[in-house]
Amino acid sequence: QVRLEESGGGLVQPGGSLRLSCAASGIIFSINAMAWYRQAPGKQRDLVASITSGGVTNYADSVKGRFTISRDRAKNTMNLQMDNLKPEDTAVYYCAAGVGFVVPTTASGFAYWGQGTQVTVSS
Question: Helix or strand or coil: residue 29?
Fold first, then answer.
């Protein structure tokens, strides 16, 4: 079992920054990749960024150059630094973790999810 807890969401003006964190606990050594997904009202859950245990990162085109994903193994956390935020970034952001031998490439491949944290970008 892996437990994930997000923090850091909130209300920010366009052009502002937020930093999301995801704290992992449980059988952490089994994690092979972690990711941030987001879901806006009435829309599907989409990948924002992912990072493998080897440090390989992947970003959605819409956030490239603005968001940075990172892991702090010593603290068992994953972070998402979000800069130059836009109203269209407004969504609930979810932390996800994959385990086992196959690195997940779709949402269904991530076995564990956090409860989500709301990010609202508005003036």
Answer: helix
The 8 Å CB, 24+ separation contacts for 50-58 are: 51/78, 52/103
Number of C-alpha atoms within 13 angstroms, CB side, residue 17? 8
- For residues 70 and 37, what is the distance between their CA atoms, to the nearest angstrom? 14
Residues 43-80 have pLDDT tens digits of 999 999 999 988 999 999 999 999 999 999 888 999 99
Give the whole-angstrom CA distance, residue 54 versus residue 107.
19
Rounded Cα distance, 36 and 61, in Å: 14
